[in-house]
Amino acid sequence: MSARTAQILIAAVFLILGGWALFAPASVIELAFTEAYRETGYITRFTIACFGSQAVLFGLMALVTGWNARSFLVFAVLLLPFFGFNYWFHYEVPVLTSIGMLDFAGNVAMLVLAIIGWRAARANEGRA
């Protein structure tokens, strides 16, 4: 897999999950949060939509920028704290449902893609 393909697939995770949060925040709240933490008021929907818009923004930027090996490596390292977030808010404080753990699945996919992209970019940079 090329570095560019890995980058596009990382962007896709942001665009799909972020788009869901941006355009259907009530659905995200209903499906991703456990009943004890589910609030459907305007501010909650607004906040989820804002979160989604930031994810979509990053996804779009990932599509139009060029990542080198360092970019993939930094992205992979910066993803690591999100695994702690997923663990904490699913197992310790049960905020996220199993559907809410799509965030975890997305993070795993992006970490794998970042490593693949890093290797491919490093190989390409070695040839240049």
Could you walk me through the main structural features you see in this protein, from its secondary elements to its overall organization?
The protein is mainly alpha-helical. It has one domain (3-127). It is 80% helix and 0% strand. α1 packs antiparallel against α3. The longest helix is centred in the C-terminal third of the chain and has 26 residues, at 102-127. The two termini are 18 Å apart. The model has no long low-confidence stretch (mean pLDDT 95).
Main traits of this protein?
128 residues, mainly alpha, elongated
Mean of pLDDT? 95
Question: What about the largest sheet?
Answer: none
- Give the low-pLDDT segments: none
The portion of residues assigned to helices is over 70%
How large a portion of the residues is in β-strands, by DSSP E?
A: under 5%
Secondary structure class reads mainly alpha
Count of the domains: 1
How widely separated are the two ends?
18 Å
Reading the helices and strands in chain order gives HHHHH
Any idea what the radius of gyration is? 16 Å
Shape, per Cα inertia axes: elongated
Quick one: how many beta strands? Answer: 0
- Give me the number of helical elements: 5
